[in-house]
Amino acid sequence: MARRQPTFKPYYQQQLMLLPPGLDELIPKDHACRVVNEVINNINLKPLNAAYHTKGSSSYHPQMYNLEYLAGYQEIFRTFNTQCKIGT
Q1: Residues paired with residue 8 on neighbouring β-strands, in sequence order
Q2: Helices (DSSP H) in 4-61: which residue ranges?
Q3: Cβ atoms < 10 Å from Cβ of 25
Q4: Could you tell me the CA-to-CA distances from 51 to 11, 12, 37, 47, 69 in Å, in that order?
Q5: How far apart are CA 53 and CA 75, in angstroms?
Q6: C-alpha 1, offset from chain centre
Q7: Apex 45 CA angle, 13 and 53, nearest 5
């Protein structure tokens, strides 16, 4: 018997908005979050997906969680470095 796949809430990075037409327009081309996004998009998430339960309500996609976690960590690290340079 094949294992059921978990159900995730919809997650579309290219989703259009009314104004501006896309989230991509809000982020500068040279912003560090684009690097984080590229790294997360290239990670194999099959082992992580296997750990999710198939019962109960749908979960947020692990790719979205990882992206938020690493982008937040990168922002904290950048802010800390900026404050250290100001303090010296």
Answers
A1: 59
A2: 33-41, 46-50
A3: 10
A4: 19, 22, 22, 7, 19
A5: 31
A6: 32
A7: 100
Amino acid occupying residue 28: P
Residue 86 pLDDT level (bands cut at 50, 70, 90): low
How many Cβ atoms are within 10 Å of 49's Cβ, its own excluded?
A: 15
The yes-or-no verdict on residue 67 having pLDDT over 70 is yes
16 or 74, which is more confident:
74
Identify whether the C-beta of residue 27 lies closer than 8 Å to the C-beta of residue 34.
yes
Supply the pTM of this predicted model. Answer: 0.56
* pLDDT (average), residues 15-41: 79
Rounded CA separation 82/52 (Å): 38
